[in-house]
Amino acid sequence: xxxxxxxxxxxxxxxxxxxxxxxxxxxxxxxxxxxxxxxxxxxxxxxxxxxxxxxxxxxxxxxxxxxxxxxxxxxxxxxxxxxxxxxxxxxxxxxxxxxxxxxxxxxxxxxxxxxxxxxxxxxxxxxxxxxxxxxxxxxxxxxxxxxxxxxxxxxxxxxxxxxxxxxxxxxxxxxxxxxxxxxxxxxxxxxxxxxxxxxxxxxxxxxxxxxxxxxxxxxxxxxxxxxxxxxxxx
Length: 234
Ligand SMILES: [Zn+2]
Prior knowledge:
The protein is built from eight helices and nine strands. It is α/β, with parallel strands linked by helices. The protein has one domain: TPP-binding domain (Rossmann fold, 3-Layer(aba) Sandwich), CATH 3.40.50.1220. The chain has a six-stranded parallel β-sheet with strand order 3-2-1-7-8-9, with helices on both faces. A three-stranded antiparallel β-sheet has the order 5-4-6, covered by helices on one side. The protein is globular and about 55 Å long. The chain starts with a helix and ends with a helix. Bound molecules: zinc ion (ZN).
C-alpha cells in the first residue's frame, strides 16, 4: 500500500498537504511569556517534517497546518509554500486589544532569540505570541497569516486541470472548515484530484468522493515513518 501511495504522490503535478493534531509537536498557549516561548521553541523537533520534505522533493507543493506549534516554521520547507492560519510562535501581536501591531520573526528567527522583550512597533506595548486558541479566539489578530494565505489561494487557483494529490495528515474535527471540508469539496469538483486521508480514528470518507479518495486508518506519525522506509528502499 505504501509503495502505491508514494507513487501516487510522486506522479502528481501538484501536491497539497494538510497537517493536523496527530502531528502536533507540543502544547503552546497564547499567555506564555517571551522566556517561556523561547524555552518552548527548543522542544521543537522535525522528524516528521523531514519525511514530508522527502515526499515533496522537487515537487510543486503547498502545505496548510491547523497546528500552532511552529513545526512548519522550523522545518526546512520553503517559506513560500506553507500557511499556518491559526498562527505560530514566530509571530507576535500587540497585547493591546485595539492595536493591530504585529511582528513576524519567521524569516529572522535569530533576532527573536536575542530579544529580551518584544515591543509593538505601533504603540510600544508588550507583545504576545500570535496564535489562536480557544481561550483567546476573540483577541487573535488574523492579519498575522494573511500574506501567506494569499500565496495559498494563488497556488490553489493554479491546480485546476492538473493532477492534484491532496494528502491530509491527522486532521480532526476541531476546525474542519479550515481544510478538512475544503479538501473534500475540491476532490468532489476537481476530476483530476485525489485525496489521501490519514487518521487513526477520523479516517472516514463520504460516498460522493470515494472513487477519488483513499482512506488510511493509521496515525499520521506512523504513516510517515512507514513512508520513509519505502522512500529509502527506492
Ligand atoms: Zn500596539
